[in-house]
Design brief:
This protein is an alpha/beta fold. It is built from 16 helices and 20 strands.
Amino acid sequence: MNIDVALIEKVVKKVLNEVDSSCPADDYTYGIFETMDDAIEASFKAQKEYMHYSMADRQKFVEGIREVVCDKANLDYMSTLAVEESGMGAVEYKKQKNVLAAMKSPGVEDLVTEALSGDDGLTLIEYCPFGVIGAIAPTTNPTETVICNSIAMLAGGNSVVFSPHPRSKGVSIWLIKKLNAKLEELGAPRNLIVTVKEPSIENTNIMMNHPKVRMLVATGGPGIVKAVMSTGKKAIGAGAGNPPVVVDETADIEKAARDIVNGCSFDNNLPCIAEKECIAVDQIADYLIFNMKNNGAYEVKDPAVIEQLVELVTNDRKKPNVNFVGKSAQYILDKVGIKVGPEVKVIIMEAPKDHPFVQIELMMPILPIVRVPNVDEAIDFAVEVEHGNRHTAMMHSRNVEKLSRMAKEIETTIFVKNGPSYAGIGVGGMGCTTFTIAGPTGEGLTSAKSFCRKRRCVLQDGFHIRMK
């Protein structure tokens, strides 16, 4: 499939005309600027003013962001537009992810002060803002990344300059304008969240190297993560993953099959946390496949068709073909002449360890299944095929010893036991969410405190009430 450039341009123009017509007559651009230099200058000015606002103000602004996102009309519009513009994912999943980002991204409650008191006085250790943060957002999760990063960065007292992916600029600009309008209504400084009209590599480079941008956050592939880490600035990199899921002979196979299909198909496999390859102990592999097929998986057995799929969805067997990233299983199968209904959510096939589908992070609902003789070999291969990304892994087992072994050896930021991958970001699992999961730089699931500096304030010989 070729990208319909004319259609994308039409969608973007429609969005920009709509948001422009809703702006007042003054020269306020609601965070959208012609040049990156202008955007950064406005962001710098806003952050200096924002430093004088209270923590209660910050939380009020966070709640305002949540209100904008969860408004039904806004939610429907941006979720639909994100799919139309990027050509990736599915609207219902986008809605779920946007609400998740809004409601489960922590606000100021994440910034817990530490206090030390004793004979020598009192010391406070507090989370304080970096200043202007430059944030790069991917086309795979465009609005979700803007939402969770805006909440976390503003809660931390920062302002943010976004560099969205050009293939999702329309929905990103629309959302940033909506958020700024709400923040102004609530009394926030103008331009706490900004971007440019025309996102580009050139503008991203300007942002990364601008002296007033104090921190960089990249949510995307290894190339952009490497770029921000090479600037010499404080950088947070949320890079690629290739999450394996291991199933051993002690697992609840019926539940494991259901969880794996649901996790792998979540937004057509766009999240980097989603199951990308399954490693099954031979003893239960047939029964696992049987149950996967009962839960929305379509098995391809013909080697010739598997090879057709490889040629179709990869470039030279080395990288995913972007035209199929985030497409549905139904769409992909249709391209090789197989007609299925919407009940089919995932394409499965057995594959050897060195198969491209096993080794490449496809970000589409294709799940290769690798048979191994025993659970120890399964764990060893999972560690190998995760490629050291330290992102996400899953295991279905009732053997606590083996669960513990895999958790220790794979060293991923997220390790989900006996559940679908998305439990690791708070969907049916405990804990907060984010769509900026920093494996390469070690912050893990980012939140407000990830975007702050820890500062120490010391009062010598005073303000403790215990007797000497």
